């Protein structure tokens, strides 16, 4: 069983990403349906890519009534978003590159009926996906990124020089 907070976060992320995809699609229709499909697909894939990073870095929440085990960790900053595993990056980059390959390979683009995007459309897709999913980094579960009192330098192993 998943903790209720994790289900709520995932549901909210999915709803917001769906709304972003439909919003980008609707806003892009004036440039044609193929372009709108491409922009919506770009928003969805970018959102998924961000979601993978955010979910991977999220603190582990034990199920109700279960004490946290040794795998539980807390988010210690943005560095937790960047995995050190080469295998992760190979898969992540392969997934991310699949959409541009699909869009800019004429036979595949025709088959999927998606149009290539210009730089502005890519930025709109990136912005919409980031807003739809990236909010979790700043809002939920990671108080270290919010304004919290910092420990004194001496307590952090530092000090005055």
What does this structure look like?
Helices cover 60% and strands 0% of the residues. The protein is mainly α. It has one domain (4-62, 76-144). Helix 1 runs antiparallel to helix 5 (119-139) and helix 3 (86-104) packs across helix 4. The longest helix has 25 residues, at 4-28. The radius of gyration is 20 Å and the shape is globular. Residues 70-75 and 143-161 have low confidence and may be disordered.
List the helices and strands and how they pair.
Layout: H1 4-28, H2 33-57, H3 86-104, H4 106-112, H5 119-139
Helix pairs in contact: 1-2, 1-5, 2-3, 2-5, 3-4
Which term fits the overall shape? globular
Q: Please write the string of helix (H) and strand (E) elements.
A: HHHHH
Global structural class: mainly alpha
Number of domains: 1
Please count the helical segments.
5
Q: Pick out the low-confidence regions.
A: 70-75, 143-161
Give the proportion of residues in helices.
55-70%
Characterize the largest beta sheet: strand count, sense, and whether it forms a barrel: none
Number of E-type strands: 0
| Rg from Cα | 20 Å
Overall average residue pLDDT: 79
Amino- and carboxy-terminal Cα gap: 51 Å
Strand content: under 5%
Concise account of the structure shown:
With 161 residues, the protein is mostly helical.
Keywords for this entry:
161 residues, mainly alpha, disordered C terminus
């Amino acid at each position: 069983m998943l903790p209720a907070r994790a289900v709520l976060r995932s549901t909210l992320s999915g709803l917001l990403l769906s709304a972003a995809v439909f919003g980008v699609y609707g806003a892009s229709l004036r440039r044609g349906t193929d372009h709108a499909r491409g922009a919506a697909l770009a928003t969805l894939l970018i959102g998924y890519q961000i979601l993978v990073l955010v979910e991977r870095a999220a603190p582990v929440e034990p199920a109700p009534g279960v004490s946290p085990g040794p795998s539980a960790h807390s988010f210690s900053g943005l560095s937790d978003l960047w995995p050190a595993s080469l295998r992760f990056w190979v898969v992540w980059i392969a997934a991310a590159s699949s959409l541009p390959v699909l869009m800019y390979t004429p036979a595949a683009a025709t088959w999927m009926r998606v149009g290539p995007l210009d730089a502005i459309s890519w930025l709109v897709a990136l912005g919409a996906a980031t807003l739809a999913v990236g909010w979790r980094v700043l809002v939920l579960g990671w108080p270290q990124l919010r304004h919290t009192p910092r420990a004194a330098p001496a307590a952090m192993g530092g000090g005055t020089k």
